[in-house]
Amino acid sequence: MSAVEEKLAELGLTLPEVVPPLAAYQPAVQTGVYVYTAGQLPMVEGKLPVTGKVGAEVTAEEAKDLARTCALNALAAVKSVAGDLDRVARVVKVVGFVASAPDFTGQPGVLNGASELLAQVLGDKGVHARSAVGVAVLPLDAPVEVEVQVELTEA
């Protein structure tokens, strides 16, 4: 077990199976020392635990927890191409999309769920640049979607 996965275990988390693509794309690709994940939905065992818009059917706190799940799914996607999460030199950027009710403006707080998990698990290597974007709708009516870009150490 990698040190990163040991840290996840200390937090009471396990790395899930990679979420299969919903369309014609790969969950993650590597180019050089960088891995780019596709947008990761908060799937748990193949299902969305909650659907709807944040600020309407979904609370900001629920969405923050869902963003955390998205980040966990992104780590699984990174591992699927990197082979070992201990190869992560740093998380470079996180981009998060929040399906938002028209008057909801708390997208940064929602995305803190993903950012905080990455920092908890990876320490300083998990601190990153980030964009938090409110959108009208996401695939499968998911409340949140997160993509992650990481730099790897040489194999």
UniProtKB/TrEMBL annotation:
Tell me which domain of life the UniProt entry assigns to the organism this sequence originates from: Bacteria
| CDD domains linked to this entry | YjgF_YER057c_UK114_like_1
Q: Which Gene3D superfamilies match?
A: RutC-like
Q: Which residues belong to any copy of the Endoribonuclease L-PSP/chorismate mutase-like domain?
A: 6-147
Q: Under which name does UniProt file this protein?
A: RidA family protein
